[in-house]
Amino acid sequence: MRSKALLLGLLCAVAAQTARAQPPAPVEIKIGALYASSGPYASISMPVAAGFRLWVDQTNANGGAEVKAFGKKIPIKLIAYDDQSSTATAATLYNQLITQDHVDLLIADSGSVLTSVGVPIAKEHKQFLFDVSGTGAAFFTDDNPYVALMADPVSTIWPHYISDFLADEGAKAGIKTVAILFSTNDFTGTQAAALKGFFEKDGKVKIVYYQGVPTTTSNYTVLINNIAALNPDAVLELGYVGNDIAFLRNLQDSGNQFRFVFSIYAGVEKEEIEKNVGVSALTHIYTYVPPSNYEYVPEVGMTQKEFHAAWDKKYPPGSKVTFGANAVYGYMTGLVVERALATAKSLDQMDIHDAVFALSGKLKTLDGTFVLRKDGAQIGEVTPLGQLQPEGKDDLTLVAVYPPDMANGKAVIGK
Amino acid sequence: MLIGAIIAGIVFGLYYTLVGLGLNLVFGVMRIVNLAHGDFLMLGGIAAWWLFTTLGLHPLASAGLVIVAFVLVGLPLYYLVVPRLLRSRDSEMLSLILFFGLSQMIEAVTTIGLGSTERSLPPRLLGVGPIILFGTRLPKAWIFSAAASAIAVLLVYLYLYRTRLGTLTRAVMVSRDEALATGIDVNFVSAVAFGISIALAGVAGVFAPFILGSITPNMGVAINITAFAVIVVGTLGNPLGTLLGGIIYGVSLMLMQTYLSSWANLLPNLLLIAVLLVRPEGILGRRVRRA
User: pTM of the full predicted structure?
Assistant: First the structure.
């Protein structure tokens, strides 16, 4: 009798355990995200938010995301808050998404500045953070499994094609000196430090000017004059959209000319920069070639052309968000979420982590190949170096010029 | 590099004179701080952008229209807001709160209406290429902006010292109560000054795309901080002291960019603290304001 009772008790315990292991499927998957509708980061944040929303709407139109943990499609509920480009507000809202809204998945705001406050909060709450484009190297450490960079390479490796090009093609053309002017934030500060390291290691190009300026800088005339006084062959300006607009306008206005000029957003947000700077100020400027201007062959999701068409349909020209690389980054993050949900064993945050990391090296989207380092830093998706070259009378085309296996045109180095 | 920074600073500072001039005029006449001043500057820039993109209007022509339009906005806004504010027990403090709220509203409405992206005007409109001044390359747009500022300062001077309304305005600046007691229509005098102030901000906004690169709805707060530093340095309440404040700010900024570029954004705050500690009445002080 005692053994029968024991057996019955064991059976009950196993049944209860089984019931716990298979919770009922939720009616929706809650995804929390931040965006900045105003402030200095709005111009990079809003396209990301719009690209991600496009993925959400498409997914829900198809009945929701396939969730392996429950063996069915479940609609996505997007809970998005506006941090207004304020890190203090962003910190509060990251906390709110985790502790009040209890989101299943957490998406960071665009860029390193607004991601920087989310990384420690997500780690503290053991919530996996989908870091869209916060490329600051300090975010990725071996003791933090709760973050992975989605759509941009980490800043320490991102700019290496610039130094490779100058050490290779540039040196052949007689480029010997470089000036580096950067905005002092996690994103561009890390890239500048990485470039300095690359140049010092190669030893082929000498740095003659290396200065940081506040990210709020809106006038570069005197800085450009100071650089010109040192007569460098190449000038690399690393800033956010507003910085690049001011720098490129001031460069043209100053009449100073350099053989090689690089700006990040000249290509990354080409439409936005061209609208504000004009074609003549952008001609022959070097920049990154983002996925919005380069056709990778995706195995998951839309091609770049299909995405651009879908974007134009949802956000017609003249609407408040501009198509560019950040639009791709938002959509691409959605694709990672989609594949992670389709393969994760449960919605436990470490299972989400495992599912995301299992995509490394296998996920090919319109943003290139997704490759994660073990600390969560993105080391795939490295954008080729490009140059804005004249096309017709009043237009520019972004040509990939380096590395040779990705190039679709030849660089024009100034005399 | 030193000479270049000083020359560029003087010309650049003249633009910031234009930015701060209206703010100082309002403080001088009404003893209130218009924290929406930077947002009116932003609206001036947006107006110039809109007039160019829809009607093809040159920014110099837009500047004329902006002056008229912003004076017409400023007059009713004064009667709507300021007299009630001045009747309160602590109008200076309350003005900070009220105009901060107005600033937030202007930014929010502009963002909702137009989006948050950068907007600018083609550089060619004020001439491409540099002007070389004592061996220093300066954008042509800087010269236009400095000239516009110099004209604005001159007109404000002529208004204050060569017109009857200006004399009445100076009387209100010395003592609002005494002016009222002598029969001056203080509200009308103040409303005109408020309208002129808004118009000056609007004109500064027209030139902002050429000086600051672009216009965004959120730029008002940063402009306010700088403008406030300029007028405190030049002497709070003395519109013409703004000229000195602007030049000191411009030269200091360019020197910081040249020798200590990473710390350049601290400059407005450093200048404010230094002046408040060493000479709280501003560099020109009360003496000039009463002259």
Answer: 0.84
